[in-house]
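Human: I'm a chemist; would you kindly supply sequence and structure tokens for a protein?

Assistant:
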Amino acid sequence: MNETYFDIISKKEDITKIINSNRLDDRKRLIDAEAYIKNLIKHEKRLVINDNKSLSVALWFLKCIDEPQLTSRFLIDQRDIFKNYIINISKEDKFLDYIKGLGIPVIIENNIYKINLSFFISYNKRISGYKYRLVYQDIDHGYITVDIEVFSNIMREYIVSRLLNIYNSIDKLDALDAMKNYNNKIESMKIEFKDSIKKYTPSGKIRWDNFPPCIKAYINEINDGGNPAHLARLTLATFLHHIGMSNEEIVKVFSGTADFEENSATYQVNHLTGKISGTEYSPPKCDTLRSNHLCFMDDDPLCRQIKHPLQYYIKKRLH
């Protein structure tokens, strides 16, 4: 991995130089970027892009393809690569200089990480667990002390935000013009991706109208190519189980997630529903969802009368 990681090309004139170049290294970057995108579409074994110019080309390919679910898959892949990189170099002498070079407001002393409060609360919301809730933190002069696991997870969310901002800054018309010689390949990849995904819509006895806002939000996030937090997935899976959905149907709901792997999803669902664990898990209470930023009650009056997602569903069915 290129250690700067942030020299991603967002200007049309700069990316055009690579795309129209006859240099062997630039030709290889195009080939690598295309192979990487195709690999994301197929969900095959991860391909690692080793330089920022190749990563930039891949990002411009994604802008042309314009499929949010595929873009989310890319962000998740880069997020995990970056987290592993942070952990791997955390004990090296260059680590502190690397972090400072990124401009991250952190103090590192004897494997103790003190993160600036504003930086922490900017990126903790999508991570489940008490370690990431502000109420459990000791704040000292505007800094929060964490371990390498928490620090690397905060950093992974930072890289997602950074890459997404770069992606959003690229004008789609500029991308299509810059990549016009690859229109056929882009259309082919777009068709291949659309053929590979399925969006979930409740049917039969299970009615969408009876779902609480949080469950609808999790399903919409999946259908839009998102990657719900662990607690959101647990809530969704256990909720659907308790309202009568089969394990196979529940797995299909999760098939739209950017990091979906059928064997892993099947195992997790079977575990949560008691098929292999002997324990049927229940969805967490509304208070737990609120404390983890996973409550979406808005102005729904029924949400204010219940304390559990299943209560919402039961009350809706009775009316």
In short: The beta strands are 106-109, 112-116, 139-140, 143-146. The chain has 15 helices and four strands. The chain has a mean pLDDT of 87. Residues 12-87+160-196 form one domain.
